[in-house]
Amino acid sequence: MAEVAARPVVTLAAPLGRGRDGAGAPRLLRRAGKHLLVQRGDAELVAVDPGTTRPDPVGPNSVDPDSARPCPADPCPAGPDTAGADSEDAAVIRFPAPWPSRYGTCAVAPDGNLAVFAGVHALRAVDPAGEVRWEIRHGCWDDACHTLHTTYDEYASDHSHGYADKGSAVFSADGTLVWAHIRGPLAATGPDPEAQDEWLVVDAADGRVLGRVDAETAAVGSEHVPHPDPARMGLCVGEGQDGVPMLWGRWDGQRLSVERFCDDERILMAVSPSGDRFLTVTHCEETLAVHRTEDGSVLCELDAQDGVARHPEADPDDLDADVALWDYTGGFLDEETVVAGTSERDWEYGEQRHWLVSADAAGMRVSARITYPFPVSGGATALGDGTWYTVSETGDALHVWSR
Known about the structure:
Blueprint: E1 3-5, E2 7-13, E3 27-31, E4 34-40, E5 44-49, E6 55-56, E7 82-83, E8 91-96, E9 104-108, E10 115-119, E11 122-126, E12 132-137, E13 168-171, E14 177-183, E15 197-203, E16 209-214, E17 221-226, E18 232-238, E19 246-251, E20 256-261, E21 266-271, E22 277-282, E23 287-292, E24 298-303, H1 304-307, E25 330-334, E26 337-341, H2 343-346, E27 354-360, E28 363-371, E29 381-382, E30 387-391, E31 397-402
Parallel strand pairs: 1-28, 2-7
Antiparallel strand pairs: 2-31, 3-4, 4-5, 5-8, 6-7, 9-10, 10-11, 11-12, 13-14, 14-15, 15-16, 17-18, 18-19, 19-20, 21-22, 22-23, 23-24, 25-26, 26-27, 27-28, 29-30, 30-31
């Protein structure tokens, strides 16, 4: 098996650290050619423009200063080691959170000037000053609750609401629209015991609901996968053991139309830079596939069993080690190259592995194993500009890589 060395681009410090005040893992987003480092805590959501951070030397986990270079498209700091999010010249934007992080998901506009919190009972758009720009109330994500809540305080002390199902929201590529997956009904339509999940297109400026459809799902959770065309969006809905519906929406300025692809069996991972293709993995992680966005048809696919060798550190008598599985994270480095991992299975045996996968007219195949200058943990997330990132094992830093 050929090997390709990962070249360190930059290491970005998580602005909230990890675990402190409910902080989750940091994420690096790329929208309209710009990068944004995002991390959610219980009290706030922090967004950092990594192109304005000043690199600060750190300890033994630093990247090699001679190999660091700017990110393509939108330069990340090309410094010796870690870029500190709170350095004096960093563009750090803080959004006060309306409820703790366990009560929903969140999204940040590409320009960093607005955040949307998708909570148990409402979508709420907040600016950095903490002002509520708009709010859309909807049915409660706690299946046992049929109340159209008006505030988070109504259920803050109720244990079950802390484990409610979740929807999601995301901004379109140009930031003008918010696509949101909510539990029905909208508060404006009144109580409806039969209402299930709805998919909305919302004007990001004022919160007007421009379009809505019955998603025909029963979500435990969901995730949007943006398309470079602001009028298009992918939505992957987790229904537990019942499947993973994949919806593709199109907004023509008047009507929201939806198609459902892949027979509820594949998880949507990423869209290619052109928007013409998308990447999926089967629910049980055995098979990667690249599809045509227009109709969802499979262009090429690859079983982990056929592409990935048995982990070299596994016990020879461990038959489970013969079964390789793909991670749920990955993505396109460019139109015909995918980065994918097998880390979820690998960690049982030792070093976690990532792979370059070619997806072209000749089919889908592993072209090389990626090697790193120091051990990495978890999956690899591609940014569509030739780079990808991994999160440190402790969750307090994010490493950006290129080939």
